[in-house]
Design a protein that fits this description.
Shape: globular
Order of helices and strands: HHHHEEHEHEHHHEEEHEHEHH
Number of strands: 9
Distance between the termini: 30 Å
Strand order of the largest sheet: 5-6-4-7-8-3-9
Radius of gyration: 20 Å
Structural class: alpha/beta
Oligomer: single chain
Length: 319
Amino acid sequence: INYMEEIPEILQLARQVKENTERLLEKHYKDNIDTIRKAVAWKKSAETDVIARGALYKLFSEQGTDDDTPEDRARLISESIMLWAETTGYVYSPKTKQKHLPLVLFKFQKRMIKELVLAIETGYDAMIEKSREMGVSWLVLYVFFWYWLFKSGSNFSVGSYKEKLVTDGTIDSMFGKLDYIIQNQPKWLMPKGFKKKIHFTKSRLVNPQIDSYITGDTMNADFGRGARKTAMFFDELAKWDYSRAAWQSSSETTDCRIGNSTPDGYNFYKQLIDSGIHTIRLHWRENPLKDELWYKYKKMKETPESIAQEIDISYESSR
């Protein structure tokens, strides 16, 4: 009975949150209108002018030289990734009126891209601890896809605790997101000789032009064993049954392991963070589309344990 009495207030707040999210999204695009106009102009120029296309390709693919320090290379690559992503990229957003949104990066997302690239180029492990719905999987895949598209010999692996989150082909899966990224790339930017039916399987993406790869696997104790990898992505690592074994088995495979998760009690994922490993923290308050109204609605709708675990990045309260 008490719950039934609260339903009208919940519904009213839900409508307010939905309208507020649309308003905040519109504000985000208005604040970054120059970025959008530039992307539109560049894409139009590249469609009709071969010289403009070549110039744009050069900007997208800038990766420095072997004489540069890893830090200098990471800076150049990060700038190229962000330029390419904001020019050609889209994300699928099921909770907004417009489902296919042009990718205009938030400040915290730009920071994350820079830190990921530095970890890849320098060769060290990194943890990402985050609130729910911060777009981490999208960003990691955009970074990996840039390497796949432009940097010869790149070899990445992605995995999660459920098979459907890796390879079921829907937009919720990582290979479904990769498919979505490919669909939105201009044809002139894709590798020469690339044929989707041949080079994009359920768990393997091949660039035949520069011999680069992205492969997918699900949670298992031997995750990561095998050929050398440029970097590996452990999605929702806190939920892996074999997190310790999988993490340790990949230590000889790559210099850059990237673990990502919301808290799920004190487990191996939290132990890694406490060990002093480089950690990228992404709290919901950094997201311009979330505010106190959204937080109030979530607290009314969900349990305190869920709020602690999924939103407030609290390990103690999520045990």
